[in-house]
Amino acid sequence: MPDHVPPELDATVLILGGGRGTRLDPLTRMRAKPAVPVGGKYRLIDIPISNAINSGTRRIYVLTQFNSHSLHRHIARTYRFDPFSRGFVQILAAQQTPATDRWFQGTADAVRQNLGIVAETSGDLVLILSGDHIYRMDYRELLAEHRRSGAEITVAVQPCSEQQIAGFGAVRVAPDGRIVEFREKPKTAAERDGMQADPALLEAAGADRARPYLASMGLYVFDKRALFELLEGDATDFGGEVLPAAVGSRRVQAWLFDGYWRDIGTIGSFFETHMDLLEPRPRFSFYDPRWPFFTHPRYLPGSRLAETRSERALVCEGATIERARLCRAIAGVRSRIIEADLEDVLVMGADEYEVGGPPPGVPPIGIGPGTTIRRAIIDKNARIGAGCRLVNAQGLAHADGDGWAIRDGIIVVAKNAVIPDGTTI
Which domains does the chain have, with CATH numbers? Predict the structure, then answer.
């Protein structure tokens, strides 16, 4: 982890954290999307902030808007730099000012409304990141490519399949790496026509030909001057407006990244990303001392497991698990699982230990005895009683209930929900 980077690779970091995250409902009903817990103990926002810190780019602003209380609290508790350091993580919340009386209207508008702060920063590069992706990246490589190519804008791209490209911005790249066309979320064959990457370009990057399209990852490097000029108009979105317009008038370069990267856009992708963590040789892991991911220190005791069988399980600190079966399961901080059978389940745990027992008439926080759960996400502080069956026996793709929902075929028990004894879903 570098203490500093060369001046030519120094950048001001803007992390976009203000989206509603409606496709992650019900996980985003009570929190901003970047505040959603991941990996049992982290939050989504920890990913780009940790990547930036590890890359030595430590002037970091997080732009926030919706449901932002827990996100603000987490950042304030976690990222406290040494007073003699020049680094910081600072929140830029949407606000009404004499210059503007409206909230952020999109990604580009969020940056536009904070250009006054960006103008005061040193250096001439701005690194713009999304707050809802899971990946490990050394941003110095991206910044170095931006300098080497002489670009005004550099877009990180990743090879993807025809099915995947419909959800991303597609770029067409010349042999020298310059982006010559940008199409936002091409869903039809006509919209995808001509957008396949040169096979030689994919081969040179070590990418397979089964993923012939290049998708924008939502990671951009801008020359500060170019950013200010492009945001002089009223465009509200980078992917839909700013970048397609810039391709015709600016030097926009692609930087191909073929490492693990997931856009956490839906409940299905969120769930599958967590199941990826449980593979015997996962492509992405939080276990890398050379590139640690940071989060709020909780000072919890070690987890206690008694008479429990596990197969590919990840158990975070402070958990209590007794006479349970965990098969492809993640137990988050302070999880309490008693005599339950879990398979393909993410349990986020609890914010606090329950002292003195539960209120009258409700189960304790955690998962009670005799309960079976399959393909589910259990949000924080959920109370699941005894003898429940959360298995989606009807195979529903989408449903809503009291304290629970089914999205993409995955059962989601909401934060603070109470699931009474004997419930079947």
Answer: 7-276 (3.90.550.10), 304-419 (2.160.10.10)
